[in-house]
Amino acid sequence: MLHNASSRENKLKINKELIDPQVEPVEDKIHRIVKSSVASIPGVGGVAAEVFNSIVESPMESRKIQWMIEVTDAINMHLVEREHSIEKLIHNDVFITTLLQASQSALRQHSLDKREMLKNAVVNSALDAELFEWKNAIFMNMIERFSVLHMVMLKVANQEKNWFMDAFLKQKGRDKGFKAILISEFPDLQGDLKYASIVWDELYREQLVIEREFDQLGSINGDKKRLTTDIAQEFLAFVSAPKQDA
After folding, report:
1. Model-level pTM?
2. Of 7, 35, 51, 128, which one's alpha carbon is 20 to 30 angstroms from that of 204?
3. pLDDT in tens, 222-237
4. Distance of CA 109 to CAs 59, 103, 114, Å?
5. 114-131 burial by CB neighbour count: b if 16+ within 10 A, else e?
6. Terminal alpha carbon distance of the chain
């Protein structure tokens, strides 16, 4: 009986040991074409092709395999364990579209934070039955466009202000609130917050934060309300790891 249950569980999950794509991806095809072109150059082709291969192919292949393993683990953990059958997922158009978009984007990302958000987006696109396709597309576009600084500022803005005062400021012994947190995360911003100001303006234009002026953030620490809009809170939930069932 236990053997049958174990066999059934293995059949339900995606076997990540089988990760070996049969169809040549576009990026590999381009790589092959470029490599062939370099190799055809008289006198330098062979050496140049090997240099190109060692620089480009290995990191790209490694990144691709790592992404496939990570997203497979996430699907098995959060979806299959919650009785989302593989067959059901295959016929979920929003999930498939998100998976394709996230996979293409992940290959272009070296940021582990961005790859984590993409992985979470794939899982959440299947878990949220009320997530409209158009909203999903908007959120995926935000992941693609936003830098790590965008995301850190948005997450900090989403915290209630008593979190600043009771946790961060007590720990750091400072009283500058929002900007102090940014500088602690990005020391390069010390004495030069103009880029943070640019990012904040972009977040405001995207209707993700409610305070318009970045310069005012240091003087409103007494207000314990979040600085994010409902849209921002939905987006942050979309890119965050799903909560484990109790």
Report:
1. 0.70
2. 128
3. 455 788 999 999 999 9
4. 12, 10, 7
5. bbbbbbbbbbbbbebeeb
6. 26
